[in-house]
Amino acid sequence: MVKFYESSFNYEYPFPAVSLAYFLRYPNPYAKHVLSTDVIDRHFDPDSQRLYTTRLHLKRSKLPPAVLKLMPKGILGSSSDTGQSYILEKSIVDVREGWMTTETKNLEWTGILSVIEKQCYKRPSPNAAAAESTGQGSDNPRQGTTDVISSTTFVSRFGQGGPRTNRRRMEAMPSGKETADNVLEDDPPKKGFLSSWSTASLQRTIEMMGMRRTRDALLKSKDGMNVVLGRLRSGGLVEVLEGMRRDRETMYGPEGPWKRAWKHGNGIEDDE
Predict the structure, then answer these.
(1) pTM for the whole structure
(2) Tens-place pLDDT, residues 20-40
(3) I need a labelling partner for 229 at 20 to 30 A (CA). Which of 58, 72, 148, 177 fits?
């Protein structure tokens, strides 16, 4: 089953500032659940004049208790115990044309719910700005804004057989082309009415819960971006970096998150 959520909004800042703030948005007071961010790959294409970046975010995240109660322990894996999950982010920035596209997706619990969020940041076109100028000419405030379109796809495959299930079935059968063909042509096992209804109902429930959480997360994401943009406007990059340092100390203390994680892993209690 698939559900979609789409929204559009704008930032009252020009596109260069918004695109820069996007890469400097963690940590901020509205993203205390983000533990770390690592750049996996980054390259600039001189022909298209575009910057390609792939990053990995580690976030503190747990499945809702209502969903956990319905899930078999084996399907969750170790991530359900640690309360942490990885998010893969890919982005393309074209400063010359004035747009940026981003895509993020979860790498944990994909058998339960896959969430793929795509955003397009774009400066207003000259024609659109002129249409809204109301006689203000080049001083039109729309020229200093950035439009954003966000769309999120939710896919729950809970209860559906996947490639691993089919592979295990193939490995369990004797070798031979005729046998393998018979396995591939087998119809999937039929489910009873109640079983099919229960699985579909659970998938809808999981997707709706994911949609509500995404809606709340999007509001916090906008607030966090506005904090970073405000710092960028008031004190430039120095103020942004100083704000990141303050937020990091507020969230993890002066030692930072990694030393606290090391102490916890070695059974050492934090000093009061």
Answers:
(1) 0.72
(2) 999 999 999 999 889 899 999
(3) 58
